[in-house]
């Protein structure tokens, strides 16, 4: 057992403290093997004592020599700690006078953390089969060649682009995206109208700021992507829901409401999967023109269509009313965080102003690498390969569901994308059912979760399949069948 030699040290603000030499004084306990410097440990302990009231305003601190002696540290270490306290205004000292605790430092005791907080913020759950939506299969991403592109991009990037290269994005990437959307979707876009973003979510944040001067009401598909809904609600918008059916937005329900914009996913409605037909597209554009509002077109995964080529974007019908939002998260990998917006010219200067005050720009290295990836047509080939793979998995999923559930279900939105919706007429799925699925080892989602008006789609489930192998898909469907069977018996 370590024996401490005790000494009596007279603290000048009136307390007699028994101090073990070399370890403990003024409540300072030094941990010499810690990654935190001794000076910062001393600073932190004294600061906490001042804010907690154990050291009161006007109290005199020991001299640097005295404290260093009793903590068995160098005087410079204590001096550095006092310097930090002095720089932040915790102590006051003048040449030839004593060092005292400053006034006004006492803080009320902070509220204790909420009980079971760690339980509420749960660690990532390991599922036997995870039907999460919107997940590409990263196992097939050509990681090694992509890393080579990144390295070459960093080496060849002009010096001026290591600085602030502009809120619009680097010119090479904007040119290559213009070529990509023409090849893949038939969109004719000038590179000057393309603005690089950190994904579709950031794009919506900026568009909300941009359009808020025109009003605070916005029309939105119901159901819709809950994350995007919350972005708009967080910006103070009043959401006006428009119902969706198997063909997407029901334009017959559009009403003149003074809204500034309407958010739609016409090429693959999320979450129900409908493709907006030409008559509704024309009706939507007429409505936007007649009511002087803008259409935000979120084209999040239309590259993966299994019954013909990708659908032409709504943008091609009116480039002045439609603001097109694209992303590479689903066709490459989610962590890339590169998306783009095609903006009418009237918004260019305001967009740049807003982007400069958010995060200035995307990192230039990923932009340069993606530009070369597009220029060499690597992305075109990767998308064709993944479209074939995802199409095969879609067929496996539909076949497995047919085998297990016979004709008690109907698919929604199975022609494209990385997920499908399943309707089970007469059933009602709720949180209790989700919990049973979780306990059985599978994750699924409810369409009703994404609904603004609840209980209109409570008979539908969402199953993402793009990232699952055939064996996982069949196992997941089998587990889902058991959960549904148990639920029906209850």
CATH architectural arrangement of the largest domain = 3-Layer(aba) Sandwich
User: What does the main sheet amount to?
Assistant: 8 strands, mixed
Unreliable sequence segments: 1-24, 116-123
Q: What count of domains describes the coordinates?
A: 3
Strand arrangement across the biggest beta sheet: 8-15-14-13-12-9-10-11
In the CATH scheme, the class of the largest domain would be Alpha Beta
Work out the oligomeric state of the chains in this entry: single chain
What is the residue-mean pLDDT, rounded to a whole number? 89
CATH superfamily of the largest domain, by name, is: Type I PLP-dependent aspartate aminotransferase-like (Major domain)
Distance between the termini: 64 Å
DSSP E strands, number: 20
CATH third-level topology of the largest domain: Aspartate Aminotransferase, domain 2
Specify the overall morphology.
Answer: globular
Structural class: alpha/beta
Helix tally equals 14
Give the helix proportion (percent range).
25-40%
Cα radius of gyration in angstroms? 31 Å
Beta-strand content estimate: 15-25%
Overall description:
The protein is α/β, with parallel strands linked by helices and 490 residues long. It has three domains: 6-101, Winged helix-like DNA-binding domain superfamily/Winged helix DNA-binding domain (Arc Repressor Mutant, subunit A, Orthogonal Bundle); 129-134 and 381-489, Aspartate Aminotransferase, domain 1, CATH 3.90.1150.10; 142-377, Type I PLP-dependent aspartate aminotransferase-like (Major domain) (Aspartate Aminotransferase, domain 2). Helices cover 37% and strands 16% of the residues. It has helices at residues 38-52, 64-71, 75-87, 117-120, 143-156, 171-185, 200-211, 226-234, 278-290, 348-356, 364-375, 378-405, 431-440, 470-489, and strands at residues 6-10, 16-20, 24-25, 28-29, 91-92, 100-101, 129-130, 194-197, 217-222, 238-245, 248-249, 261-264, 294-299, 322-327, 339-342, 410-412, 419-423, 442-443, 445-446, 460-464. The strands form six sheets. Strands 8-15-14-13-12-9-10-11 form an eight-stranded mixed β-sheet, with helices on both faces. It has a four-stranded antiparallel β-sheet with strand order 16-17-20-19, with no helix packed on it. Strands 1-2 form a two-stranded antiparallel sheet. The chain starts with 5 loop residues before the first strand and ends with a helix. InterPro entries: Aminotransferase_I/II_large, HTH_trans_reg/aminotransferase, PyrdxlP-dep_Trfase, PyrdxlP-dep_Trfase_major, Tscrpt_reg_HTH_GntR, WH-like_DNA-bd_sf, WH_DNA-bd_sf. This is Transcriptional regulator with HTH domain and aminotransferase domain.
């Amino acid at each position: 057992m370590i024996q401490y030699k005790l000494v009596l040290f007279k603290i000048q603000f009136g307390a007699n403290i028994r101090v073990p030499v070399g370890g403990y004084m003024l409540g300072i306990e030094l941990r010499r093997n810690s990654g935190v410097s001794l000076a910062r440990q001393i600073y932190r302990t004294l600061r906490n004592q001042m804010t907690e009231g154990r050291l009161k305003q006007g109290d005199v601190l020991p001299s640097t020599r005295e404290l260093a002696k009793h903590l068995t540290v160098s005087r410079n270490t204590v001096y550095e700690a006092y310097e930090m306290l002095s720089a932040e205004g915790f102590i006051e000292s003048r040449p030839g006078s004593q060092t005292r605790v400053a006034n006004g430092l006492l803080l009320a005791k902070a509220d204790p953390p909420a009980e079971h907080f760690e339980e509420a913020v749960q660690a990532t759950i390991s599922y036997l089969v995870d039907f999460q939506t919107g997940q590409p299969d990263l196992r097939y991403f050509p990681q090694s060649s992509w890393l080579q592109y990144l390295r070459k991009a960093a080496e060849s990037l002009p010096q001026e682009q290591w600085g602030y290269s502009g809120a619009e994005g680097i010119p090479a990437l904007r040119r290559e995206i213009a070529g990509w959307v023409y090849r893949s979707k038939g969109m004719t876009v000038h590179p000057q109208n393309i603005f690089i973003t950190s994904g579709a979510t950031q794009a919506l944040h900026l568009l909300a700021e941009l359009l808020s001067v025109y009003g605070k009401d916005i029309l939105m598909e119901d159901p819709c992507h809950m994350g995007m809904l919350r972005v708009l609600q967080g910006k103070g918008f009043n959401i006006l829901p428009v119902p969706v059916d198997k063909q997407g937005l029901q334009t017959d329900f559009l009403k003149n409401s003074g809204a500034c914009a309407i958010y739609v996913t016409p090429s693959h409605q999320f979450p129900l999967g409908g493709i907006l037909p030409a008559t509704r597209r024309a009706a939507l554009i007429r409505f936007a023109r007649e009511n002087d509002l803008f259409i935000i077109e979120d084209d999040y995964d239309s590259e993966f269509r299994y019954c013909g080529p990708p659908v032409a974007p709504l943008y091609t019908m009116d480039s002045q009313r439609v603001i097109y939002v694209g992303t590479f998260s689903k066709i490459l990998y989610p962590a890339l965080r590169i998306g783009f917006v095609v903006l009418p010219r009237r918004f260019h200067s305001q967009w740049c102003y807003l982007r400069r005050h958010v995060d200035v720009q995307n990192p230039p290295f990923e932009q340069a690498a993606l530009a070369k990836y597009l220029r060499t047509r690597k992305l075109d080939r990767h998308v064709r390969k993944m479209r074939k793979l995802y199409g095969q998995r879609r067929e496996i999923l539909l076949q497995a569901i047919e085998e297990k559930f016979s004709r008690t279900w109907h698919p929604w939105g199975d022609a494209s994308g990385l997920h499908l919706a399943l309707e089970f007429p007469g059933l009602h799925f709720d949180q209790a059912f989700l919990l049973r699925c979780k306990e059985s080892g599978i994750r699924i989602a409810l369409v009703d979760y994404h609904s603004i008006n609840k209980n209109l789609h409570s008979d539908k489930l969402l199953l993402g399949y793009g990232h699952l192998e055939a064996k996982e898909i069949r196992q997941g469907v089998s587990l889902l069948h058991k959960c549904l069977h148990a639920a029906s018996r209850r």
